[in-house]
């Protein structure tokens, strides 16, 4: 009977979305471009500073000369939204990995039937990991224009922040899909 062997759609969705979310969140955490600072007075017009949660890079766009490890003269890294992101983004990555291990055990792999309770628990863990990365991304976005920057410069959202958002959303959706496994637990009782 093949109907008992099939993996439920919610589990497949969760196991596809969450690793994608993990990759996006990892890139967002490591890449130094949560915010771009450009059009800085008394500087070349094509100079852009990319600020991440760990590093600041300076790039001359005409020559593509890029230099990271720039000094933090304005106290950018001391700001609360940056510090919170430094704590919660890596925590989210660890929780996501933990959730994926539990999901792999629950979704079956070597058993005939999925372990619905374990898959549901992994969904909750992955939902939490998505929220753990959504909070700093949202807070940073909210404070983006308040964080220290050279006077009269132009500020813009960087790609790392966008990737962090997307990764968080994929983890939340994947986690929700896996939590539907609890429905089967209720049916079994």
UniProtKB/TrEMBL annotation:
It comes from the Eukaryota. Gene3D superfamilies: 1.20.140.150. Its main location: other. It is a multi-pass membrane protein. Belongs to the claudin family. One of its GO terms (molecular function) is structural molecule activity. This is CLD23 protein. The chain crosses the membrane at residues 12-34, 84-105, 117-139, 159-182. GO terms for cellular component: bicellular tight junction; plasma membrane. It comes from Syrrhaptes paradoxus (Pallas's sandgrouse). The keyword Mitochondrion does not apply. Keywords: Cell junction, Cell membrane, Membrane, Tight junction, Transmembrane, Transmembrane helix. It is found in: Cell junction, Tight junction; Cell membrane. InterPro entries: Claudin, PMP22/EMP/MP20/Claudin.
